[in-house]
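Margin note from the TA: students keep mixing up input and output lines. Inputs are the sequences; the output is the structure of the whole complex. Example:
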Amino acid sequence: MSTFMKTDLTKSRPMIEVKEAGKMYGNHRALHAVDWQVTEGEWWGVVGPNGSGKSTLLQLLAGTEHPNDGSIQIDGRDISSYTRKDLSRMIAVLQQDGLPAISYPVREVVEMGRYPYQNWLGKEPSDGAAVVDKVLEELGLSDLAERPLDALSGGQRQRVALAKVMAQEPRLLLLDEPTTFLDIKYQLQFMELLSAWRQKNHITIVAVLHDLNLAAQFCDHILALRDGTCVGSGTPHSLMTEENIREIFRVSPAMVNHPDNGLPQLLLRREKK
Amino acid sequence: MSKKLAVYGTAGIVLLVLTVLICTGIGSVALPVRDIAGILLHRIPWLGDWIVPDWNTAAEQIIWKVRFPRVLLAVLVGASLAIAGTGFQGVLRNPLADPFTLGVSSGASVGAAFLIFFGLQYALIGIWTLPLVAFLTGVITLWFVLTLAREGRKIPTHSLILAGVVMQSFLGAVVSFLSTMSKQTINEIIYWTMGSLALRGWSYTAILFPYFVLGLIFLWSRARSLNVLALGERQAAHIGVKVDGLKLSVLAVGTLLTAGAVSVSGVIGFVGLVIPHILRLIVGPDYRLLVPLSAIGGAIFMVWADTIARSLLAPTEIPLGVVTAFVGAPFFAYLLHRNKKLRKGMMP
């Protein structure tokens, strides 16, 4: 996709339209009649307790699972009308477990992000190698390019995972708890890298996040799920209130405003005995 | 990547050509490499005119009618089994998978043995009957093994091997039973249990050749997808790989290659296990290199194994499967041991 398509003309176009979508696994209803719209360029955080259907929703958006009822439209077309490669040129997914410890060198793993652009001979019309070089440079991975993946630390490996999805040049990025296995330094670094990438390329981001404080600081909008249904959506200010948190997570927090930017932040309270 | 392929590919082909020349010379009548090269080059149109024959015609008969077709068949069988193993390991993401350990070879041999037992090897579609039936029984066996080994969506390494062993010993027993029952064709069926390339001639090479060429092209064209699959099935799907289609087609082509090899040479184990593994240690995990280099490596391995089989105890022939098992089984044990340590990281 060329860049001009992403600019002003299409600013308010819906990137994702979820209509009454539901998903069953056997007899278990993982998702129930979810309605949701994401406009191009927005950053959404999806929050909710364990088993609330967050990851299921993400798999539906990624096209690796299909809804039992309702529909999902990506960029104005039903998701099932795209081929797997078409979808992968538009949507990239980063999972919480990141990359397995395989012995492929970093550059080759990042190059795998170019797969949807390549024909069966491995050639692509644009300059894929240049994209890979640029991404490695941007994420400070150039020095590690020839190192095998299984020789890297967890934080470095997650950066390679990010490099791979960046090389995929998606318009929509789906993240499933991407910071779970990172320490706080790498968590913050990872979110800042995402933020910088988004500013530069105006991509749309949907991130399932466990850490509500990170979600409040980085996302423009938050979607809250509980028991497979949508129980709220809005800006961090409107959604992250003491009452809502109690409703969604069944804990009683203390809410404070962040001293730097005034965004709502959550402090946990111990149960009173 | 392409530079690496050029370097290793050239080295491999040089080794293969030397292997063919040397091993063609080994036998009851030893012949110098120079004569063999001359005899073979002489057969090539245009080029042959430049070579003046200075060898005796008896030697030429031995080389062209007996030894060379056998060596060439070893090349094709070894290459086919090795790339089949590479493909199986790629889609199952399991370094211990190969046509033999998965029971596919035994499955194919049951089909072949049945046809021979009832004297139907050339029924309906002539020389293609045997490979086709071997393919069908191979596919059925593979399906059984995979179903037996599956736990939910996953196929653990050890249960896959266990399922393969179970099928293998059962099907091996079926073939042995058939050969016991059969009076006149006993020798022919026994070939299929231990593997042999003796007395095959040119027609067998012609049967296997198209299988090998198509199989090689297909697997090589899927090399990038196999690389991506190393990230895991879900991640591969996110990058644009049609995972189910890839797995099915590679398993089918691997089985077809195995069936082709088994129908001309019987059950020869461990080639598809040993060769890709050694190559991984040398060139790394990239399937764009592993597929073509496995073909070359498998060919070299098989030519030497067959040379040992026919010349070590000459004039008695050792079954070829015995030779490869002597090398392969200890190697398999070593891999199993190593795999225990490397459980979480899939490929070595």
